[in-house]
Amino acid sequence: MYRKPLISVCVANFNGMDVINDCLYSTINQDIDEQAIEIIVHDDASTDESAAYIKDNFPHIQLLESDHNVGFCVANNRMAAMARGEFILLLNNDAALYPDALTTLYHTAQNTLRPTILSLPQYEFETGELIDRGSLLDPFLNPTPNKNPDRDDVAMVMGACLWIPKALWDELGGFPEWFGSIGEDLYLCCRARLAGHLVRVCNQSGYKHKVGASFGGGKINKGRLSTAMKRRALSERNKTYVMLISYPWQLALLIFIPHLLLLHVEGLVLSLVKWNKNLWREIYAPLLGSLWQERDRLWSTRKEVQQKRAITLVNWLKPFHWLPWKITMAIKHGLPEVK
Known about the structure:
Layout: E1 7-13, H1 20-28, E2 37-43, H2 50-57, E3 62-65, H3 72-82, E4 87-92, E5 95-97, H4 101-110, E6 116-119, E7 122-124, E8 130-132, E9 135-137, E10 143-145, E11 161-165, H5 166-172, H6 184-194, E12 198-201, E13 207-209, E14 217-221, E15 224-227, H7 229-246, H8 249-274, H9 277-284, H10 286-293, H11 295-307, H12 313-317, H13 325-333, E16 337-338
Parallel strand pairs: 1-2, 1-4, 2-3, 6-12, 7-13, 15-16
Antiparallel strand pairs: 4-11, 5-13, 7-8, 9-10, 14-15
């Protein structure tokens, strides 16, 4: 007998042959009625035969195959558009759920009185070390890992494991496709909070994550922060976009100009210390041009978001951590390796 699924698990895949088994089997082997779940995979024009592998080995999974690479935002928007579940779980192909993950998320959602974005504690895949329980934000919108087990209200959760009611996803408009990849989770969580919705982390269960496997970098390697040039460029650009869109005007006036100045100083220092002009040319120099190019879209999106704002400035700032996270990381790990 046909029954509409309760949960739609959406997995964005690009060249995930080395990680996709762990991801999909962790979803299939949940301690929940299998008829309550549908699994959708969007393959973003992989070149490693992972799409064919999924088709051959997981025939019950709905596979969307893109004929060209469209990026993380478009991939997830496509899956969400065809999702039939009451709830959507966005899951990275390099992440694997604990067996009780979906049950925990569902029960938490049921016990929350209003639409809420949820996630789970995130653990390093190989070592099992806790990475975060969602994130707070510093003034420049750098995620600051929350490791406090007594704190479940956070500023954002990672798109690697993001649970959201389908109705709320539709209300917020999904991911901004012009972001491409990186920062879309920050945008969605900021937009949800401004509209008066909650962003929380369950205090039980969890997921394992091979951080950086799907996009390169973004992790600590032998005591040093390692990232990819493309990832860093998209991160700095899209965080700046989110700041312009989401910050209440009082905060925007206070933070935005210092943010731009400090970012360009950072770029010059990093380029000189590393003696690599490509760092400046590919990460920092294009920022002002991209802001100008997207000025109309940024302004119209800001107007839309701010008109629907249902939260005070004080409440907006509650999950912020005021010491800039980059300073903390530089003191602890030195300047990042950018490849």
